[in-house]
Amino acid sequence: MKRSGWFSRTALILGLGFLYVPIMSMIVYSFNNSRLVTVWDSANSPTLRWYFELFRNEQILSAAWLSIKVAALAATGAVVLGTLAGVALARFGPFRGRTLLSGLATAPLVMPEVITGLSLLLLFVALEQAIGWPQGRGMLTITLAHITFTMAYVTVVVQSRLTGFDDSLEEAAMDLGARPATVFFRITLPLIAPAIISGWLLAFTLSWDDLVIAQFVAGPGSSTLPMVIFSKVRLGVSPDVNALATIMVLIVAIGVVVAALLMRRRERRREREVQAATAANL
Amino acid sequence: MRPEPLDPWRDPKAEPYVRIEGVTKKFGDFVAVNDVSLEIYRGEIFCLLGGSGSGKTTLLRMLAGFEQPTAGRIVIDGQDMTGIPPYDRPVNMMFQSYALFPHMTVEKNIAFGLEQERLPKGEIAARVAEILEIVKMTPYAKRKPHQLSGGQRQRVALARALVKRPKLLLLDEPLGALDKKLREHTQFELINIQERLGVTFIVVTHDQEEAMTLASRIGVMNHGTIAQVGTPTEIYEFPANRFVADFIGSVNMFEGRLVEDEPDYVRVESPELGATIYVSHGISSPPDARVWVAIRPEKIAISRERPDAQENVARGVVREVAYMGDLSIYLVQIDSGKMVRVTQPNITRHADGRITWDEAVYLSWDPTSPVVLTQ
To answer: Could you give the CA distance from residue A114 to residue B48 in angstroms, rounded to a whole number?
Structure first.
């Protein structure tokens, strides 16, 4: 172990550096007082100037709010549809069109976003001409598009959780007199709840930072946060974008750390209880 | 033996509780259960015994309603079960994996079935408490399944199935996941509970010892068909065919030809033994038929001196001795070259004087011991 110590340590430092130096530099520059992003104004830095300016920027705030709404709605829709598809694929055995459904449900995982975006745009336009819905493009179309591409992820997560579970649990519930709907809500759903939660978070994140698909299906006046950032950067990087990105990184980091801590605590408690049960045997 | 005035299956007036009538189950081209008919009576512990792939579990799943028979029908307490889903059957099942709901406490697990019947809360609580008392799990009511040991989980699973007061309880390898010591203990506990509550049990097992101790009757299954139905004694002492003789316990099988067939005895000429075998019970079979004579290892005596009898004696050399504690197993090669398995109880503690490797010995058996099998 000791002899290979320098190797693993170098690998660790290089790996972490590769991943986090760009983010760190962004965070550092968000406290820079200079209007020019690449020039460090050592006299007046660090400062929170850009953070205050950010909160006065109506455009960014409304885009962030729109992004949150879209992400929450899309994640919820994706969870409902994805869970249904996942349960069908994992539980209903071989039914007609199973392979087709399985392939179609997971295809968006590998489909280039440009193609997904373009085809959805064409669909929305055609639908509007045919039945007058959805009217124009905006939050509704972005949400629908995001449901479409995030649903695949939820399906995969739910399906893999269910295949890990013994189907005799559901059979036992049925045997005890529960009808299929009761079995689903009282047994299956609680069992896959962790998968549904992580599926929701995954879908939320994917929707939150999607730029390509949103570009295609967004209409005037409905710019999501990534769209606003991208358009600002094209006009030259402005420092308040750094501040915004830093806040986003902070929120994500807190979420990840809290989730990891909670999971570790639960895992430890469970381990202790299992040990106690086996030790007490009988 | 169970103290029953008259075994119901011998009583011509008794009405069977469960009737399986010509049930067949096919999965594609594979026939899992092939035209099985069985009658099971109230209060029985009926064991379906068979190896893996014998169709025993499929038959149990059809009783529970998880599978529908391809042909034939199942009648429980006079009610045809065809097309009735699992949740509407007066039947409960204890799963091999126990299938306890991991997100519910012991109490909630047991109450689940009663909640489905929409019973008042008070009654549910009372019945859960009562069944917890019976399976001795009251102190563990608030625990989750992962906080229990294997034996405790087994009892919770049993309680969860029994609390519904089913007419029929199906048990899939009920003791399969327990270690040997706990198994024996649990077996007797299971019989106690069954007698106390008077529920009819159908048990699926691959473990013949388990079947022998638990069962009032055993149905031995092979390749989707019933090879024999009978009490444990009947199955062991009077196997109906070679499969059953070989599957239950161990047996020495001698192939031969029927040379004398009288109402009260038969003689079988067996080249495998190098002599004729005299059996003091008649069989009904055409003369000269090919038959098999089965003799259990514990029914063969082993001695250094030649016994007085003229027949049913074979000479051989001890090739292997296995000391098992309570008994010793000898593998004796008889003059014809065939290996014969003999077991002898170790009555004394001392090893000296006991027959050992490479000794020339005589094997002999009583004319009542062999069973002549025609198929």
So the answer is: 61
Record: contact B99-A270, CB cut-off 8 A:
no
Same domain, A116 and A251: no
* Containing structural domain, residue A198: 63-222
Chain A hits for B87, CB-CB cut-off 8 Å, are 174-179
| B204/B96 Cα distance (integer angstroms) | 9
CA-based Rg of chain A, rounded to a whole angstrom?
24
Cis peptide before A46 (omega within 30 of 0): yes
Interface test with A, best of B147, B155, B158, B172 (most A CBs within 10 A): B147
Q: Do A280 and B112 touch (CB under 8 A)?
A: no
Q: Are residues A34 and A151 in the same domain?
A: no
**Is residue A1 scored above 60 in pLDDT?**
no
pTM: 0.82
Task: Give A95-154 pLDDT, tens digit per residue.
Answer: 778 888 888 877 888 889 899 999 999 999 999 999 988 888 889 999 999 999 899 999
Q: Which residue of B has its CA nearest to A280?
A: B149
Question: What are B280-333's pLDDT values in tens digits?
Answer: 887 777 777 889 999 999 999 999 999 988 889 999 999 999 988 889 999 999
A190 and A92 in a common domain? yes
Burial environment of residue A34 by CB neighbours within 10 A (0 to 12, 13 to 18, 19 or more)? middle
Digit-coded pLDDT (tens) for A208-246: 889 999 999 998 888 999 998 888 888 777 788 888 888
- Asked whether residue A67 is domain-assigned, the answer is yes
Looking at the complex, does the CB of residue A187 fall below 8 Å from at least one CB of chain B?
Answer: yes
Measure CB to CB from residue A176 to each of B85, B96, B113 and give the nearest one. Answer: B113
CB-based contact, A166 to chain B, within 8 Å: yes
Do A52 and A177 lie in one domain? The reply is no
